[in-house]
Amino acid sequence: MGGKSTGFAVELFNGHKDFTLWQQRVRNILVREGLVKALKPKSKKPEEMKEDKWEEKRELTNSTIQLFLGNSTLREVINETDPAELWAKLESRYKSKSLTNRLSLKKQLYALSMPEGGNINEHLDEFNRLITELEAIGAKIEEEKKAIILLVSLPISYEHLQTTLLFGKDTLGLDEVIATLISHESMSRPGFST
């Protein structure tokens, strides 16, 4: 079940799902509702805004964020009244930039392997999740390296496609690899004809 206080459905964050994606969705809602400025520290009140309006905006921002938290996560931050501090606390707990977290995510990425007969869209989603989480904590991976990691994560049945993508190229782009994989998947479906 997700929070719908603003007319947008966002799955409640319970500490076990993709924090980066959840955070982006909630931030988008805050932008749309005109509340994102309240994520700045309290001392950064816009000059043109009256103090009582600023406090109201901060309370609304804090409340909006909390409405998208699951019970266990909400309990961890329930006493936070400043939206900037609430946001920072959630980031420090769930968007860890520690060496351990970085290594864990890289290990998952490099070990990623699509099983024979697996769903390419699910595989791409998991690949993109890992890349997004790594980039969110400051671990940058070159585009060509991403493309190569994705290619080597594919099962043996994709070997011909891998060879075709690499043949006669000096560089390899991730977007090209993804587009080719999606196109290949579409053409492989039963009922596809040219």
Automatic annotation (TrEMBL):
Pfam families, sorted: Retrotran_gag_2
Domain of life: Eukaryota
Protein name (database record): Retrovirus-related Pol polyprotein from transposon TNT 1-94
Biological source species: Rhododendron griersonianum
Lineage of source species: Eukaryota, Viridiplantae, Streptophyta, Embryophyta, Tracheophyta
